[in-house]
Design brief:
It is an enzyme of class 6 (ligase). About 40% of the residues lie in helices and about 15% in strands. It has two domains: about 210 residues, Glutamine Phosphoribosylpyrophosphate, subunit 1, domain 1; about 325 residues, Rossmann fold, CATH 3.40.50. It contains 27 helices and 19 strands. It is globular.
Amino acid sequence: MCGIYLTNIPYEKDLIKEKLESISFRGPDYTGIKKINNLSLGHLRLSILDLDARSHQPMVYENLHIVFNGEIYNYKDIKKELLDKGYSFKTESDTEVLLIGYNEWGEDVLQRLNGMFAFCIYDVANNEVFSARDRLGVKPFYYFWKNGEFEICSQIRPLLKNKTVDKESISMFLDCKFIPSPYTVIEDVYKLPPGNFMKIDLNSKEFTIKEYWNLNDVKIKNISYEEAKKELHDLLIDAVKIRLQSDVPIGSFLSGGIDSALVSSIAAKVSKTQINTFSIGFEDPKFDESKIAEQFAKIIDSNHKTTICSSDDILKLIPKLTEVYDEPFADSSALPSLLLNQVTREHVTVALSGDGGDESFMGYTHFHSLVKNKNIINIPYPIRKFLGKPFFLKLIGQNSHRVRNALKTKTKNDFIENIFSRKGFLLKEQKQDYMKYYQGYKKWSDNFLQKAADLNIKLWLENDSNVKVDRASMAYSVEVRSPFLDYRVIEFARSLPMSYRYESGRQKKLLRDILKEYIPEEVFTQPKKGFSVPIGNWMRNELREEFLSALNDDFLNSVPNLNISKFKKILNEHMNNVHDHTENIWKLYVLSKWYKEFGFR
C-alpha cells in the first residue's frame, strides 16, 4: 500500500517532495522522485512484498516507468505465465509483474489482475501515460486536468494549492455525506471511476477514459443451495489465502459480526501459523462487541488483542479526520476505524477485514427495511402522498423515516436512492444530478433487493466504505485487505438466487451457514451492536460548545446553497433533544473543520 504521484507541470523537485510529505503516512518506508523527459513521477512506499531496495519505485522496465499503489493478489500466477513466455525478473514484487505484464499485454493486462490498485505507467517510446483503477475502487485515484496540464495522486491534499472549491460538490456532500465520483471538492480535479483506465497522449495533450469492468446483467445460476454454499466457501478460502501473502506481520480485524468472524475463521484454518486478531471495545455496553469477538477468537484459537476505549479516546481523534480525510467526509464510523488501525499498527502492518460482505449478502438494515416497506410503494402515489402528510403520520403514530420515505417517493427506484442520499434536504435547491453516473442499477436486475445491492456497491461502497477504510488504515500505515471485495465473490454472489442470500428476514443466509462450520450458531447470532459511536449525545453534552462554535453564522453563510433557516431549526431540535439530527449536523461540522484546515471560505 503506497502513495503515487505524477505530473507534467514543471514543478521543482523540492515542491514535489513537499507534496508527497503531506501524505507521507501512506508510505513511510521510502520516498522516490524521478524526472523523465517532461514528467515527474513520485512514490511513497509501504513495504509489504520484497522488502529489498530493488523493489523501490518509480520502477523501470525497458521504456516503461511505473508508480503503483496496492496489491496484485494473483501476481504469482501472472509471473509464471510471463516466465513461460521467456521473461526474467529482478525482484520478488508484484510491481515488476504488473509492469512486465503491461509490456506483454498492454491494457489487456487489467483483465488478468485480481487485486486492489491504482497505478500510472509512462511509456517513453510512445510518449503516453497509461493509468488504471481497480474494479471496485478500493484504492483512490485523483487527477487534475486543465489545458493539457495534469497531476495524478492517491489523495487530494497535494493537489489543493491555489485551487478553487467546486460549489456544486458541496451540495453533493450535504446530500450524501461524501462527494461521489467522478466529482471532487475542487474544480478541475476528478476521481477516476472504478473499473476504468485513462490514457494521456503527451504529444496531443489529450486524454481518454475507458471502462474495462462493471457490474452487468444478472444471470441466475441453476445451482442448488448446497452447491452454492460449497462453491462460495471454496471461493472465500482462495480469496483469503491469496491475501495472506506478505513479507511483514499480518493479522485480521475481528468484531462481533459475521463477516469478520468468517474471514478470521478461514484465515485461522489456512494459515501455517497462529493468526493475530484485533478488536476494539467501548466502555458503554450499548456499543461494545468486544466480548463476542473474544468468544470468536477463543474458538478459532487466534492470538487476540482487545483494546477498550473511552469516549475521550474517540474524541481525541476528531482532529485526525481532516488530516487524513482530506476531502469532506461525514461517516462518523471513521472515528472507531481510525482507532482500530491505530492499535493494530502496534502489532502488524497488514490486516484482513470483513468489508464488502454486507453489499453482496444483504447484511445492512436498509435491505430489511426495503422488504418491510415494499408493499407501501405498491400503493398508488397520489394516495401515498396524502398518507405521508405530517398530520396523518402523527395520527397513526408513525415516525419511521423509512415509512415516511416510502409514502413520499414516487417510484421504487426513488425509494432505493433515498437510502444513500437525502436529495436536497439541507439545500435551497437541488442542482447537480450526480445520480446520472449510477443509473446502471436500474437495468442489471429486476429484483428489488438486487437493485439496492448494486447501487450500494457502485455508489456507497466506493465513495464511503472504501474511502473510510483506506484513509483510516493509511493514517497509521496499515494495509487492509478485504476478501469479500474480491471481484469473483461479487460476481458469484450476484448470480445466486436471492433466497440463498436473504430469506424471510434472514440476512446473509449463505454466510451464516458457512460460518457454522467454524463457530457455533448460538455464539454468532448474539445481537450485533454496530461499529458506531454516540456522536449525537456528545453534541448535546461534552461537545456542545464545540459544535455551536463551529456552526456559527459566519460559517453557515459561507456554505453555498445551504438552507440556513432549516439547518438552524434542526440544530435547535437536536440540542433540545426533540429529534435526532446527528447525521446532518455532523455533515456541517465536518465541513466546517475542512474549511478551517484548508483555508477555504
